[in-house]
Design brief:
This protein is of the alpha/beta class and 333 residues long. It is built from 14 helices and 12 strands.
């Protein structure tokens, strides 16, 4: 029996948007026939430009002989959201959006969400805000990862070996927190660090997926500091992609507190959570000085990901919630 047909509209590349390919692969493993539309293909206003960019690709995907069972959008380009809205308006197809953004994007999200049949949010804060704005249910569906990509790497080279690792864009808040960890042996990966006071600890600014995995796999302690907390002063609930990626790599993780974190992992058993720079330092030091603790935290976290937090888990739940009743193959792992 032929599986459901899904048009997947999202960004695809090998760095920040590598998850586009991973989500597509999960849908295919679940038995879906997937047509990918890359939001990184430049479009523009006017028919000529639409035919050349992602809007043209989407129009072609929707105008085939057989209508898709689902059009799944993950994120939207702010400059061309109106184009996507025009395509949805009056459409007889089933449209869904899995919003990957944090609460700081809430105004744009609410404006763009109205014409979707099904809405999914990665955090309770986003879901609550959208529900209050739109007066309709929004399904909580957190981020996840592909554990075949984000996995332990026992063959890591010396370049990737470090006591404490953070991989991500430099921000002022991250700089202030990570500066307290240099005494433990710090390695930084990501854009912007060579323009900060921590420039000497930066091992690379362009972090493709493979390098990201090796960097964290080479860590004795992986640090995770959310980006959006800096702009809002903290208090957000939704958790970032890095939370699940580090857990899947199987290294001990120390992460800043988020309202939803306890929904996905068990603090103290699968990772450590800090609320102050003092807690950050003490937790990192404790893990470095107790290798058995590090091993248990990392192993427990990866088991949790394999059990509950893969893209196959998420997309199987999404298909069910949208009413796609075709049988799917494979198991969510």
């Amino acid at each position: 029996m032929t599986g459901p047909s899904v048009v997947l509209v999202t960004a695809f590349d090998d760095a920040h948007h590598a998850h586009g390919t991973q989500r597509k692969r999960a849908l295919e493993r679940l038995g879906c026939r997937v047509t990918a539309v890359n939001l990184l293909q430049a479009g523009g206003k006017g028919l000529f430009f639409r035919r050349r960019g992602w809007p043209g690709e989407l129009e072609r995907a929707l105008s085939g002989d057989t209508a898709p069972d689902l059009v799944l959008v993950i994120g939207t380009p702010p400059t061309e959201a109106d184009t996507l809205h025009q395509m949805r308006r009056g459409s007889q197809l089933t449209w869904a959006n899995w919003f990957p953004d944090h609460l700081r994007e809430h105004e744009r999200l609410a404006e763009d969400a109205e014409s979707y049949n099904h809405l999914f949010a990665v955090g309770t804060d986003i879901a609550t805000h959208l529900e209050s704005r739109l007066g309709r249910p929004v399904t909580l569906l957190p981020l996840a990862c592909d554990p075949s990509v984000y996995r332990p790497d026992p063959e890591r080279g010396q370049q990737y070996r470090a006591n404490v690792v953070f991989a991500g864009r430099a921000t002022r808040r991250r700089e202030l927190l990570l500066a307290q960890l240099v005494e433990f042996g710090l390695a930084l990966w990501g854009p912007g660090w060579r323009q900060t006071a921590l420039r000497d600890y930066c091992r690379g600014e362009t972090v493709a997926t493979e390098e990201f995995v090796r960097a964290y796999a080479g860590a004795s302690v992986a640090v995770n500091i959310h980006h959006s907390a800096e702009e809002t002063g903290g208090g957000e609930a939704s958790c970032n992609q890095r939370l699940f990626e580090i857990a899947a790599i199987g290294v001990p993780q120390v992460v800043d507190a988020r309202g939803d974190l306890h929904l996905w992992f068990e603090p103290g058993e699968e990772l450590d959570v800090f609320r102050s720079v003092e807690e950050l330092k003490s937790q990192v030091e404790a893990i470095l000085h107790h290798p058995p603790l590090a091993e248990v935290l990392g192993a427990n976290a990866r088991r949790r990901v394999l059990r509950e937090h893969t893209y196959m888990h998420r997309l199987q739940a999404l298909l069910k919630a949208t009413g796609i009743t075709h049988p799917v193959r494979g198991s969510p792992s």
